[in-house]
Amino acid sequence: MTEENQQAAAADANNAPSLALQKIYVKDASFEVPNAPEIYNEQVQPEVKMNLNQKVKNIQEDIYEVVLTVTITCQAGEKTAYLAEVQQAGIFTLKNFPEQGLHQTLGSYCPNVLFPYARQIISDLVGNGGFQPIMLQPVNFDQLYAQQMQQAQKEAASETKQ
To answer: Which among 56, 60, 86, 151 is least surrounded, fewest beta carbons within 10 Å?
Structure first.
């Protein structure tokens, strides 16, 4: 390999997209049992609902904080059995990503990395709260990201028509 080819290969390697996970941490966690102790005697089949949300913050050049919020609400009849919420965060370094690739990685890949940590904390909170520990099913963040992009395109198209 000639010296020019070696320099070109090194330049390509320096410009290739790279991702590094710097830190994973719990930003916030809460657990409430608003109807304790009476709720522990309820003989009703509980209904569990999960809500996901995420935020991305650019901390400095090429460094992003991604916060995945997982909220679990358990209803026992008309009463709330418990409410558990975790904000699982991570700091990611993403270099040399094209705009679309950066957006997709932050919106899909990063929450996918954080979810198992949030799932474990939710399970621990619920179990420590005196309830049967809950095992949340895996989430397809790629599909959620695609749905969000389709919704954004529909909204943009309807605003253009007005």
So the answer is: 60
- Name the CATH architecture for the domain at 19-137: Roll (3.10)
pTM: 0.85
Cα–Cα distance between 85 and 157 in angstroms, integer? 35
- Rounded to the nearest 5 degrees, what angle is found at the Cα of 91, between the Cα atoms of 30 and 108? 85
**Per the structure block, which two tokens stand in for 90?**
């991570």
> Do 153 and 159 touch, CB atoms closer than 8 A?
no
What is the model's pLDDT at position 156?
Answer: 81
For residues 48 and 17, what is the distance between their CA atoms, to the nearest angstrom? 40
| Per-residue pLDDT reduced to its tens digit, 101-148 | 999 999 999 999 999 999 999 999 999 999 988 999 999 999 999 998
Q: Which two tokens stand for residue 7?
A: 């320099």
Compute the C-alpha angle 73/80/141, nearest 5°.
5
The DSSP-derived string for 56-68 is EEEEETTEEEEEE
